[in-house]
Structures are given as structure tokens and as C-alpha cells.
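Hey, why these numbers?
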Amino acid sequence: MTTATTAASLTPDQLAIVETTLDFAQEHIAPHAVAWDQDKHFPVDVLRRAAALGLGGIYVRERSGGSALSRADGVLVFEVLATACPSIAGYLSIHNMVAWMIDRYGDEAQRARWLPGLCSMADLGSYCLTEPDAGSDAAALRTRAVRDGDDYVLTGVKQFISGAGTSRVYVVMARTGEDGPGGISAFIVERDDPGLSFGPNEKKMGWNAQPTRQVILDEVRVPADRRLGAEGDGFRIAMSGLNGGRLGIAACSLGGGQSALHAAQAYLADREAFGGRLLDAQALQFRLADMATELAAARALVRQAAKALDRGDSQAPQLCAMAKRFATDTGYSVADRALQLHGGYGYLSEYGMEKIVRDLRVHQILEGTNEIMRLIVARGLTGAGAGGGSRTKAGTGAVR
């Protein structure tokens, strides 16, 4: 996954993380990725094996059962996992976002109740913000949570929710007050809560190795101690979680693109035409050089943004948006060109190239469309509003 240059920039601990994760990904994920995609199989058993390595609570503090790694460490993990399967890596990014949100904004009782199961992945987590009519403008969400004595009653529909139906823990954003971001609160809902149900598994272009369903809340009654943070804090909590989520998806795009580049290079080395190896044709070498250069540039930006988020830099939301936009566009573009270099074989499912292209396409949409990422960056440049806290969210959760 790393070149000699990028490997030299990592600490010994980070190199160990990369090597351990890569060994796991190559043994337990890569050999099955195409079959899981074709069968639409969600490999929960493999996710739990990943959790045994500490990948179920990457950013969660140690006393809550997590690995207490940094964002700079996390982007390494997700890039490596995505070299084996972007779909599985993408779900793990979302699960870890949920676990981090509970660790960061929950009280001691909430952390004790839900984090052990999330960190072990005995319980899976899903993030519920997007709605059928509220994607990029997430502050316009309509799901309501009405206070009734010591409880809240939640009613509404969430759209494009990754893991829905299989996950046990759902962090749900619902309106408790006035219109706009200030009237939104966050709640923890469990799969078995009466009134919670799920739509059918969506038929998708990619990300088939994880389920995507509606989450339907029909007067779901939850105790007030299921609220995460104070009333009105939900939008801020949601946006805070998405800064890290955008880095995770950006890193997954790097991994998918890097895998596609390696596959293209190997294919050109083996394939002969017009009396010589395709890899010896200068025009094709230039294509590979451009792909490698673009991935290296995107990787540098992702790592810069991760370090900024770790140190609490005020520019972190803009950098995370830049990294998400640039890395997801780059990863998809590299994968698409790698498929072209395979010729007709790239279009066949057995080679795995078309799966990478399909999986990476949605990365330009989820965790905030790339158009919204541009808006966040532009607002940061013009002073029209900070990215993470603006009214405009993160695009469709397609797969959240």
C-alpha cells in the first residue's frame, strides 16, 4: 500500500499498524471481495475478526474498550482495508464514526452501555442523518422527537443508512425544537426498540457487500437518557462526526485507487501486443505515472487534514472537505483509467476492476457530496460561514 517514500514518513507504530492491517485484509477480505459483492453478502463474522485487532473502536479511548488511535493513524487503516474491499472498509469507517460520537459526546453511563459492544463489533453501529427529502440540506430534516415525560417519542424516516437492519445501535438526528440546525438533537436508538423498522435492502450500483436500507421510526419511545448531548446539540454533533467520516471515506478512495493502479501495472506487464509488453509502451507508462502522482498528492492532502483534525486546528473542517473532494475524485478517476488499461477484461467481473469502479463512485456522494465539499471550502475562503457548522450538510448519506 505504501511506496518507499510514504513508508519513510510513518512512525514505527504506524508501520506496524499498516502491516498488521494489510495482513488481515489480504487474508480475510481480498479473496472474498468479488463473491461478497455478487452475493450481496455482509460478512459480519469478518468484521468481528477485525474488531479483535482493535478496528471496531479505532478512535475510542482505551478505558471504553477502544484503541485510542489518532485520525492520522485511522486514515492509514482505512486505506489499507480498502485495497482489499472499499465497501467493507467504508462500512467500518461509518461504524467507527458512530462509536467515536458516543465516546466523545456521551456520558459515562452511555459509554459503559454501548461502547463495549461497538468496539468488539458484537453490536454494529449506523449513522442516521439523511432523509428522503433532506440530503445536502440536512438542517431541514423532518424526523421529530417529542418529549413525553421521561421519554422522547421519535417519528420519521431516514434514508440510505449503511448497516441498517443488521446494526443494533443507531445514532439518530431528530428535531426537538425550531426549524434549522439549532432545533436538532441526537439520540441513541436500538434495533429492538418497538416502532423501529427497516425498508428493503436497496439495489445499488456498488457497495453491495453491506446493506443499505431506510430506517423507519414510528413513534419509537426512548428514555431521555438515550439523548446524546444536550437538546439542540445534534447538528453540531453530526457535523463533528462527519469531519472524521470524510477522512475515512477519502482514505478508502485512496486504497481502492491504489489497488486498481497495482492491478493495471501487473496486467500491462503480462499482456503483449504489437510485438512487446504493453508495460514497455511509453504512452501507457505515462498514464501509470499520472495515476501514481495523483494518488500521492491526494494521500498527502488526506494526511495533512487528519493531522489538522488531531490537533484541533480551526481550519480542519475545510481541510477535511478538501481532502474528501480531492481524494474521492482522484480514487474514482484512477480506478476508471485502470479499467480502461485492462481493455475488455476490465469490464469482466472476475477481474475485480469493475467492482472497484462501482464501489468508489458513491464516495463522491456520501459523507457530503463533492459539490457540498466545494461549498464548505468556498465559505471558508470567503468568510461566509465555517464548513462544519454551516446549515448545509453533507450531502446524501447514501450509505451511511
Summary: Confidence is low (pLDDT under 50) at residues 386-399. The radius of gyration is 21 Å. The first helix runs from residue 4 to 8.
